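Explain my protein.
***
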Amino acid sequence: MDAVARMTSKGQLTVPKAIRDALDLQVGDNVLFRVEGQVVVLARTPDLLELAGSVPVPPQVRGKSWEEIREAGWAAQWRAGES
């Protein structure tokens, strides 16, 4: 599907209705712009809260802070690099 939009003097674009409908974009949704050469790809990004509970949490990290988990991951990578 192709659609054309005109940039305003403030650098703003309106996403054409056909594109909004195709991506099911709603008010407040976030979109991603990715530059690939001379082409820009526009994608709807998921609401991260919708992903809550979709990834199992290993028992050894349950109840730990994000900082503790991150530090343990860094330590494991450092130890793996020593071998």
Q: What stands out?
A: The longest strand covers residues 31-36.
